[in-house]
Every structure is written in C-alpha cells, then in structure tokens.
Amino acid sequence: MTERGEKREDPERRTAIRRSTNRDERYERLVELAPDGILIHDGEQIVVANAAAVRLVGADHRDQLIGRPIDAFFHPPYLRAVEEQLVRSGDQAGLVPPVRDVLCRLDGSEIEVEVTAIPFVDRGRASAHLVVRDITERLAAQAAARQAEEFLQQAQKMEAVGALAGGVAHEVNNMMSVVLGFGTFLLRDPAMPEARLPDVRQIMKAADRAAVVTGELLAFSRRAFHKPKVLDLNALVREVEPVVRRLLGEGRQLTVALGGPCRVWVDRGQLEQVVVNLALNARHAMPSGGTLTITTAEAALEGGVSGYAGVSIPDGRYGLIAVRDTGVGMDAATQARIFEPFFTTKPAGEGTGLGLAAVYGIMEQNKGYIVVASAPGRGTTFRLYLPLSPDATVSERMEEPPPSAAGTPAGVTLLVVEDEPAVRAVVVRSLEGGGFHVLQASDGAMALQVVDREGRPDLVLTDLMMPGIGGTELARRLKARWPDLSILYMSGYSAEDLRRQGAADPECVTIQKPLRPESLLRSVNAALAARTSK
Predict the structure, then answer these.
(1) Alpha-helix runs per DSSP H in 221-365
(2) Residue 461: closest CA among 404, 515, 414, 530
(3) N or C: less crowded end of the chain, CB within 10 Å?
(4) Global pTM?
C-alpha cells in the first residue's frame, strides 16, 4: 500500500532509466580506456578529454584540457572541417577522412598524430568527436623501412658496379700486359732508333698509369691481390706518416696521435693505400690549408653502430684508425655517393674518382667497416674499424716470389697455357729471352695434348680463368700424373675471389697481371729454385 497522494513509480520507466544510466557509464568507461586520445569540442572549447589525450598533451590531469580552445593543440582547428562536412552532406555520422597533423603539447614540444573527426550536432551546435592517434613510431618505422630499402639498393648497385669494374679491370690488365711486354721488348731492341725511345717510355708510363687505375678498380670490386697478416697498427701509421706529410703540401698540417699497442689482421699494402687515399682526399678538401689528424686506438663497439650505407657493425673490439680533416665538409647527398667509382667533386682532369672507391673495396675485402661523419664547413672524419684477430683459415700467397739467387737452369722446359694470343706471345717471348725452352697452348685441352706429345715439362705457367678446362682443373689432371709438378698461375683476380669462383685452390701461387717480363722471369726462376731445394 502506498500513502495517500503519493504517485506510484512506473517499473518500466525505472528500468529504462537504469539502462540508460548503464549505457552512459559504459560509454564513458570505453572512452576513458581507449588507447587513442579522444577529445570532444563544441566549437568553442574542449568538453571531453580521456586519459590517453591527457597523456598525449603531457598534462597531469584533464582540467588542463577541459575548457581550452581546440586550436591550442591543433593548427588549424578541426571544427572548420567538421562544419564543412555537415553542410555538405548533412550526415551527422559522416567521417572526415583521417589527416596527419602535429599535436602541440603543453611543454611546447610537438608530436606527429593522425586525427579522425566524427561530426555531430549537440544542442543545435556543430561539434566534433576527435580520435587522436600518436603515429610517431609508425612514421619512424616507415622511415627506417625506406632507409633500409635505400641502403639495399645502394648495396646492390655497389655490388653490380663492383662486378663490372672487376671484369673491366681484368680485361684491361690483359691488354696492359701486352703493352708493357712489347714496350719492354722495344726498349731492349738495339735496332730501336734513339730518337724513338722517349716515345716508347711515354707509352710505358701511360701503361703503368692504366695499371694503377685497374688496381684501384680491382680494390673497389674486392678482387685485388690480398695478403692479410698480423701487423702493428701504430707501426704502420708511423711508416706512412712521411708520405702523408709530403702529399699534404704547404699550408696543411699533420697531427698523429697513436693509442696503445693494437695488432690487426689486414693487408699491409692495402691499408697503406687506404691511408694515402684518405690523405689525398683531405688535401683536396682543404684548398686554403688546414689540419689532418690521424689517430689510432683499440675500440669497443656495442649497441648497433652503423657504418656506411647502413651496414650494421657487429659488437666487439676493433683496431681503429680515424682520419679527420678541417676542410669544407660534405652534405648528405655527397656523402651518399663518395664511394661510387668515378664520382668526384674535383674539377675535370684532376682526379679519377677511384680513390675513395678503392678505400671502400679494400675495407670490405679486409672485413673492416667505415663510418663517415661530415657536414658542410665542419670537416670530415673517416673512422676505419679493422678486425683484431686473424682468421687462421685464410691463406694468401698471391705474390711474386723473391728473386732467386740461382741462374736459369739449363735445358729447362716450360709449358705456357694462356687463351689470349697477345698475352701468350708476351709470356713466351719473355721466357725464351730468359733461356728457357717453351711449349705453349691456348687452353687446357690443348695443354693436355701437348704433354701427351712432348712429355712432362719442368714447370707449367697457366692462366686460371679460361674457357673449357680452366687452370685449376688442368693442374689437377697434370698432378694426377706427376704429383711433384711445379705449377704457377696467372690472374688479375685475388686468390679469395678465385677460390669463391672455384677457380683456385688455397695453396696456389699466382702471378699478378699485368705481367712484366722482368717480374715474370723472377717468379719462374724462384719457383724452379724452390723445386730443386726440396
């Protein structure tokens, strides 16, 4: 029973109110727990801000947002876009397409965000429900992906150019063997008119220069002759220091700061070439004078240090050479191309654009890393990280043996196998001039026919890369008959590259092209002397 005059409450109305209240509470809870920032503004001020929005703007509590104009955080404010959407479509539930914007935080900093605006009318006023998503990490990931793709494209380009450069250098070395060989024959010819000798010397000089250029191409392509060994980093810098001082010339100073003892595993000649090339680069970068500083140290790297072209340098300890100049520096576009062959900032005729390309290839071949730091007007620093521990499995004997004390043995027969006729003619003529009896073949198959007909030679001198039966396969077949047969190889590639192609065994001794008659004779005599001393 109810008291008189008291109205009886409708149970259905009570249930409806309770459901409405529950819906409002659920909505408010969902808004509050949303991972993205949510702001609602009525055209004049912010009326709702969830916890994520408070965090995004760097506030301590939501009162720092409520009642403030939306354009205090965004520029331009989003009400204009919402009003345009409402006027255009009249659809209160329509979405204004998400847009990128910058959110101004309370401390003055800014972050990249994506804003989705949901227009609606509240009490006759155009309002907007804004969903604000922090996209800083997404943009960073996209930038990293783009950079990785650029690095990959750069690495693929460098690899392709390196393969081309190596192939070109190999072919040019064959041609230079011919030029240097026949040039030597002309200089030795007593019938050569004296007035013509300067011309021949100029030809030889140009051929030597071409050999230097092909050497730099081979260095860039990681196909140069490579003889790594343990050496003292400080001792090497001290030895090359006088050369660097002369190269810098007047008005440029050299400072050398050597760290503690540091032993690295590297090709001595190649590392000297790296330091000299960087010094030449520094000289060009300091036309009005400056200071070049070379420092050494044993360095520990950790935390994902990146080298040139985004190469990740493994954590560990390295031998470090830092070469820093006070020159004009480089912008980012120039830095991206400095190790490309034939790219140069020097005037026409003042450089080949191969110096830094050779540095890049040498460091790659020696399993080292390069870090470049530069900015316009602030100089340039090259940091070279070299392996400390030798790899005992690497054996390089790609070198000319020292001259033999013994003379040419009498009655010695040599077999020359070379597929390039002009190169073969130079080799045969040089050896015959040294007193040897020489047999010759244009490929491995013909060489087998020659030994079948003529018998065992005292030494075989063969090119490694030939069509059909290559030098390594020829050597295998000949040694199956005569295990103690002496074999010398000729090539313009490094032993490492030849082994990678399956064209050489680890114990081969290879004479480097371009060939010169004098060095060819020294190598053959030394090989024969080593055979007789066993």
Answers:
(1) 233-248, 268-285, 332-335, 355-365
(2) 414
(3) N
(4) 0.50
Backbone region of residue 141 per phi and psi (left: phi > 0; alpha: psi in -120 to 50; beta: other values)? alpha
Contacts of 323 by beta carbon, 8 Å cutoff, 6+ apart: 275, 278, 279, 282, 292, 293, 294, 381, 382, 384
- Kindly write down the DSSP assignment for every residue of 110-150, as one continuous string: EEEEEEEEEEEEETTEEEEEEEEEE-HHHHHHHHHHHHHHH
Are 36 and 120 part of one and the same domain? yes
Q: Identify each DSSP E strand in 410-485 by its residue range.
A: 413-417, 437-441, 459-463
Residue among 67, 93, 71, 69 nearest 82 (CA): 93
Region 76-89 average pLDDT: 59
3-state secondary structure 389-403: CCCCCCCCCCCCCCC
Q: Are residues 377 and 419 in the same domain?
A: no
Does residue 201 contact residue 184 with C-beta atoms inside 8 Å?
A: no
Are 119 and 235 found together in one domain? no
Distances (CA, A) of 141 to 100, 135, 136, 303: 16, 10, 9, 18
Residue 377 lies in a domain: yes
Is residue 35 in a domain?
A: yes
**The token pair that represents 141 in the structure block:** 């990931």
- Whether residues 457 and 331 share a domain: the answer is no
Query: What's the CATH code of the domain at 62?
Result: 3.30.450.20
The tens digit of pLDDT for each residue in 330-378 reads 998 888 888 877 777 766 555 566 778 888 888 888 888 999 999 999 9
Closest alpha carbon to 323 in 379, 402, 397, 270:
379
CB 69 within 8 A of CB 84: no
Confidence of residue 457 (pLDDT cuts 50, 70, 90): very high
The model's pLDDT over 462-506, given as tens digits with 9 standing for 90+, comes to: 988 788 888 888 989 999 999 989 898 887 665 555 555 554 554
User: In 163-194, which positions are buried (b, 16+ CB within 10 angstroms) versus exposed (e)?
Assistant: eebbeebbebbbbbbbbbbbbbbbeeeeeeee
Provide the domain limits for residue 424: 413-533
421 plus 388 within the same structural domain: no
Instruction: Answer yes or no: do 241 and 357 share one domain.
Output: yes
